[in-house]
Amino acid sequence: MRLKEIYSQTDKPIISYEVFPPKDDNDGKKLENLFEELKKLTAFSPSLISVTYGAGGSNKDESVEIIRRIKEELKITPMPHFTCVSTDTKNIKKYLETIESLDVKNILALRGDMPKEGTICDDFKHADELVGFIKEHTNLSVSVAGYPEGHKDCESMEKDLHYLKQKIDKGADVIYTQMFFNNEHYFSFVEKCEKIGIITPIIAGILPVSSYKQLSKMAQMCRVEVPKKMQETLEKHQDDIDYTKKYGIEYASEQCQNLIENNVQGLHFYTLNKAYAVSEILKNIL
Questions:
Q1: Which among 28, 34, 121, 130 has the fewest CB atoms less than 10 Å away?
Q2: Percentage of the chain modeled with pLDDT above 70
Q3: Positions marked active-site
């Protein structure tokens, strides 16, 4: 199914997941473990599973294999990520041909993080250029990223929304948000998008927190607010793994329930390749 078809359903929020190719998987065991986790998550009838892709195609082959298996073995719609930074036009065309040869219908178009070293190719500098290229050269349905608190590299929220509008105007069908822990940021983001003419489905990105260290790292890396009570609670219990996992599940469950009550069109879970936390949250809210 294409994105517009998936998100045309309005009777309940659409569930989707994100996974990534396991690192240092020389014997393939981590990949098999990933699919064991995904099999557990299929019980909640996800509409799609997205697969990340490293800048410059650093894990391209692994991503393609995961996409193929999601489609053929799990019978679920896959959505590959694709980053354009430091990737030349020739390789972008080649990758898109590979994706279409697998009969994939959807793709998430991203600029990607700038590489810390190596030669930088500037054929595509921004995600809107990639969106336009994909729409011109393929039949793929395209989604893009949105940042309720603004992109970490952008000078202002207004400028970030301007860039998002450019991506939509080039043909993007759906927006998936970066993780957030304060729903007010999401609601405000949706309102601001509507004011500038963005009526595309805006899907909430949800990260179940499983460790204080993980939370601190990701919040700093992505420039995301951690509510004071959440910060204090997790800091106080940072050495208690079981408590932290339970708290993370409870927090995300309340967050998702509030989003559902306010008519969110979809919930996109950043699984970190694990099923337990997401499964418990979905049991709580569905």
A1: 28
A2: 94
A3: 18
